């Protein structure tokens, strides 16, 4: 397959005006100017017209299960209020509700340019069926909790690993996600860290998401501390340092770990994350929904932390007027640009592509257009000039003109 476009935006190389991408099987063989193609290659090319071709977006944190909760939970006064609200909301859902919600979310991501998603899965029995129903590349992180469970951490982990081993797919993977420090026992964190590092599995965990969580671990007090204590949590692991320090103490930080949110940092936390090569995933619209303290991107990036972007769930995304939000990485990028005006469009695009690829252990394979990478491409309408291509991409709203995943059309072009 040979695709021609007005502009090629490889992300890891300068944009090419009037360029072409050569695809062989599921990989990219070359990215080059149209004039450098041989005559017989030009005859075989498909001209996509006035579009920008760029890598498919990498959504490094999502909850597809909760897509149909869009607009259902109003922004809460405190984080524990939201936890109680979503637990109550989920109690009325059936298997079919989760399946329908998951598939709707996958469709929204596909239409808005995501080609790879790191999803937190609370209903792993869905996976064989829903994986086959979408062309997306999916990392399904199986959520583990256990504060009120009668099972031991070893049993919780064993059950999750058994489920992982039963799930086989040529494109998708099941992995582990201890939910958060406050909702899991330290032993489960240590056991998950040990097996994931030994087998070189990526793992995902929410951490330092709220001021209440930070106060719970840092000072052994506050609404979350008291609420969980009333619900039977052994809070003896609190008062010993920040949530990030708690993960470090339990050996969970590492190059394979995706630390989700990280909205509250103690002194030394950024350095601790960088030293352990832990990736951070920021979700701008979710951050705004909760009105968390300003995300300390510059502090994290300044010490070398890799920061990727995610959508989180639509249960934590504000409605705009009467319209429910959709899962959309372009909306996340625009929200980040508005919140952090020091960031350039180029930096934001890297957070939604190559940075997410690196976090998932697929650097050089996804998130860029280069020889040897998977043929994951999206096409956007191109009303602007090559000199403003990054700004044009960042301003994009709505569905993509086309999407290719591993050399197969996921959203076919119209021309």
CATH architecture assignment name of the largest domain: Alpha-Beta Barrel
Structural class of the helix and strand makeup? alpha/beta
Count of beta strands: 16
* Helical content band: 25-40%
Q: Overall 3D geometry?
A: globular
Count the DSSP helices: 16
Largest sheet geometry: 8 strands, mixed
Give the end-to-end Cα distance, rounded to a whole number of Å. Answer: 15 Å
CATH topology of the largest domain: TIM Barrel
**% residues in beta strands:** 15-25%
CATH homologous superfamily label of the largest domain:
Metal-dependent hydrolases
Radius of gyration: 21 Å
Count of the separate structural domains: 2
Query: Which ranges are low-confidence, i.e. pLDDT below 50, for 5 or more consecutive residues?
Result: none
What is the CATH domain class of the largest domain?
A: Alpha Beta
Mean pLDDT: 96
Describe the 3D structure.
- This protein is α/β, with parallel strands linked by helices and 415 residues long.
- The chain has helices at residues 39-44, 79-90, 95-111, 127-131, 153-166, 186-198, 211-219, 223-230, 243-249, 269-275, 284-290, 297-302, 329-339, 345-351, 354-359, 389-395, and strands at 2-8, 16-24, 27-33, 46-47, 51-55, 57-62, 114-121, 137-144, 173-178, 203-207, 257-261, 279-282, 307-309, 377-381, 402-405, 408-411.
- The protein has two domains: 2-55 and 367-411, Roll (Urease, subunit C, domain 1); 57-359, Metal-dependent hydrolases (TIM Barrel, Alpha-Beta Barrel), CATH 3.20.20.
- 34% of the residues lie in helices and 21% in strands.
- It is globular and about 75 Å long.
């Amino acid at each position: 397959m040979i695709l021609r476009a007005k502009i090629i935006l490889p992300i890891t190389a300068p944009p090419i005006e009037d360029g072409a991408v050569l695809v062989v099987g599921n990989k990219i063989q070359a990215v080059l100017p149209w004039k450098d193609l041989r005559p017989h290659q030009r005859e075989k090319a498909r001209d996509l017209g006035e579009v920008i071709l760029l890598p498919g977006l990498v959504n490094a944190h999502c909850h597809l299960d909760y897509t149909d909760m869009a607009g259902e939970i109003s922004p809460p006064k405190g984080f524990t209020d939201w936890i109680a609200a979503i637990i109550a909301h989920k109690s009325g859902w059936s298997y079919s509700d989760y399946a329908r919600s998951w598939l709707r979310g996958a469709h929204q991501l596909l239409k808005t340019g995501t080609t790879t998603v790191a999803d937190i899965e609370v209903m792993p029995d869905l996976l064989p069926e829903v994986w086959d129903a979408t062309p997306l590349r999916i990392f399904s992180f199986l959520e583990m909790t256990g504060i009120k469970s009668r099972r031991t951490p070893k049993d919780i982990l064993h059950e999750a690993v058994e489920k992982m081993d039963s799930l086989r797919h040529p494109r998708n993977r099941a992995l582990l996600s201890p939910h958060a420090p406050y909702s899991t026992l330290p032993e489960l964190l240590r056991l998950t860290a040990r097996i994931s590092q030994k087998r070189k599995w990526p793992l995902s965990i929410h951490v330092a998401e709220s001021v209440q969580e930070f106060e719970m671990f840092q000072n052994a007090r506050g609404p979350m501390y008291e609420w969980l204590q009333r619900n039977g949590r052994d809070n003896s692991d609190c008062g010993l340092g920040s949530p990030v320090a708690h993960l470090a103490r339990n050996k969970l930080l590492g190059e394979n770990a995706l630390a989700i949110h990280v909205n509250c940092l103690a002194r030394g936390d950024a350095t601790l994350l960088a030293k352990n090569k832990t990736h951070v995933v920021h979700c701008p619209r979710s951050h705004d929904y909760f009105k968390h303290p300003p995300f300390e991107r510059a502090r994290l990036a300044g010490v070398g932390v890799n920061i990727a972007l995610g959508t989180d769930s639509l249960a934590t995304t504000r409605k705009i007027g009467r319209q429910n939000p959709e899962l959309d990485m372009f909306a996340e990028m625009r929200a980040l640009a508005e919140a952090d005006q020091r960031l350039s469009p180029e930096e934001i695009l890297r957070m939604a592509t190559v940075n997410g690829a690196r976090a998932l252990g697929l650097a050089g394979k996804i998130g860029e257009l280069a020889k040897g990478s998977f043929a994951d491409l999206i096409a956007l309408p191109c009303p602007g000039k090559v000199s403003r291509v990054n700004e044009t991409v960042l301003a994009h709203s709505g569905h993509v003109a086309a999407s290719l995943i591993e050399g197969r059309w996921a959203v076919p072009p119209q021309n």
